[in-house]
Every structure is written in structure tokens, then in C-alpha cells.
Amino acid sequence: MDEIKGLVDRIYTDSNLKAEVASWIDKYDGKIIEFQIGESSISVILTKERWKLIEDSYPSPDVTFISSKEVFTDLIKGSLKISQGLKGEKLQVYGNFHDLKEFFEIIKKGR
């Protein structure tokens, strides 16, 4: 999904956002976030220095986000909050919700 690739690429080309990712990752080697958008699965592997996108599921991600493309787009635009999507059963999150929330906060700063 080009949308996710573009968002993550923006984070890693901005030194301030990249520093936020490094601070968020902290003592860990990295974070793995899987997005299941419609029929597609995309895993984003984030480290302090670089990122990698895999167009498939990744074993044992830190968090898995599941939604339709429309809901994902609304989240990225800021017209829908994660909490609203969960309450309205428009999306599902498995794993570390805190990591997903932090990732979306960094994405918002990079828009």
C-alpha cells in the first residue's frame, strides 16, 4: 500500500520525526506494526535508523491493525480517531494498543 509507504518514508526523512521514533523504540531493537487493510496485509518494521515494508503478514508483530481502506484513510486524514473507530467497531487492534497510538501520533506530525 503506497499510502503507508509514503507516510513512513516521510517520518524517516524528517530528522525530528526520526528522533521521535528512536525515542519511542527506546531500549528495544524495533517495532513491528501489521496493517490488514481490506484484503491486503502489510507489515512495517521500524528501527531507530531505518524501516522496511513487507507486503505480507509478519510473524509476531507488536500490534495488528485491521480495518477497511476507508476507515484507514479517515484515520490518516484525522477525521476519525482510533478510539471512535474502536467504539464504532470500524476497526480492530490486537497487541500493544499503546504502540499503535504512538505510531499514529508520529504520522500526524509528518502529514
Notes on the structure:
It is globular and about 35 Å long. It has a single domain (2-110), classed as Nonspecific Lipid-transfer Protein, Chain A. It is built from 5 helices and 5 strands. The chain has 111 residues and is α+β, with helices and mostly antiparallel strands. The two termini are 17 Å apart. Helix 2 packs antiparallel against helix 5 (97-110). The protein has a 5-stranded mixed β-sheet with strand order 3-2-1-4-5. A hairpin with a 2-residue loop joins strand 1 and strand 2. The model has no long low-confidence stretch (mean pLDDT 91). 23% of the residues are buried.
Give the termini distance in whole angstroms: 17 Å
The CATH class name reads Alpha Beta
Helix percentage: 40-55%
Secondary-structure element order, as H and E? HHEEEEHHEH
Radius of gyration: 13 Å
Shape: globular
Residues in β-strands, percent? 25-35%
Structural class: alpha+beta
CATH superfamily: SCP2 sterol-binding domain
Largest β-sheet summary: 5 strands, mixed
Write out the strand line-up for the largest beta sheet, numbering strands in chain order.
3-2-1-4-5
What's the β-strand tally? 5
Q: How much is the average pLDDT?
A: 91
Q: With helices defined by DSSP (H or I, 4 residues minimum), what is the helix count?
A: 5
The CATH topology is given as Nonspecific Lipid-transfer Protein, Chain A
